[in-house]
Amino acid sequence: MRASSQAKTPDTQLFRDVFNAIPIGIAVENLEGQPLFVNPAFCSFLGFTQEELCTKHCVDLSPPEDAEKDWALFQQLRAGSINHYQLEKRYFRRDGALVWGRLSISLLNSHPSPLVVAMVEDITEKKTAEEARFRHAAIVESSEDAIASVNLDGLTVTWNARPFHSRYTRTSVAHLFATGRLCRNTGSFHESRSFR
After folding, report:
1. What is d(CA 158, CA 176) in angstroms, rounded to the nearest whole number?
2. Model pTM?
3. Mean pLDDT, residues 132-142 taken together
4. Which domain range does residue 103 map to?
5. Domain annotation covers residue 51
């Protein structure tokens, strides 16, 4: 009986080691949104010490518009309407830089005083790449030049339709590609001489 009960007892040191080693930021908060303790990955993500983070409120870590969205969902969590939520939001680093995190919040009701577990994955690189793609797409779409891109199989994946359609009236871009009147030339496109 004793061996069975010991097997079911969680290894506190193991949980502490996992908490400290996991590469995703974790904060355990009370229902007021005050961090009680945080792991090293969360400290590294924001550039604060554990002591500094535990003196802050969760809404202090983000720009107001992001904090408002988070706090509205947090209130639903406190009220019992939901028991978890996810949100992509920006965070302030200690040096003033903004970074992006995917926040996952869960309510722990198993304790006499319920706790909130917040896990934050750093998605700054992903967001930076998305913003670069959006900027690139906006530049291409606003260009007066006809620009198209192909994938590694040579298939057309995007083009800025306005210059093509304004230049080649009454002829669809798809038809131009299909008939070879618009030809590939080292990854870009040019008119073939036979096009009229």
Report:
1. 14
2. 0.67
3. 74
4. 2-123
5. yes
89 and 166 share a domain?
no
> What is the pLDDT confidence band of residue 166, given thresholds at 50, 70 and 90?
low
Residue 31 phi/psi, 5° resolution?
A: -75, 0
> In 3-state terms, what secondary structure has residue 110?
coil
Dihedral Cα 162, 144, 159, 124, nearest 10 deg: -120
The predicted-structure confidence for 14-56, as pLDDT tens digits, reads as follows 888 999 999 999 999 999 999 999 999 999 999 999 999 999 9
Q: How many residues does the chain have?
A: 196
- Looking at the fold, whether 103 and 159 belong to one and the same domain comes out as no
Structure-block tokens of residue 111: 């304790």
CATH number at residue 111: 3.30.450.20
Residues 6+ apart with CB under 8 A from 105: 73, 74, 77, 84, 85, 86, 87, 116, 117, 118, 119
104's CB contacts (< 8 A; 6+ apart) are 84, 85, 86, 118, 119, 120, 121
Contacts of 175 (CB under 8 A, 6+ apart): 181
Is residue 21 a part of any domain in this protein? yes
User: Are 192 and 180 contacting, i.e. CB atoms less than 8 angstroms apart?
Assistant: yes
Asked if residue 136 is part of any domain, the answer here is: no
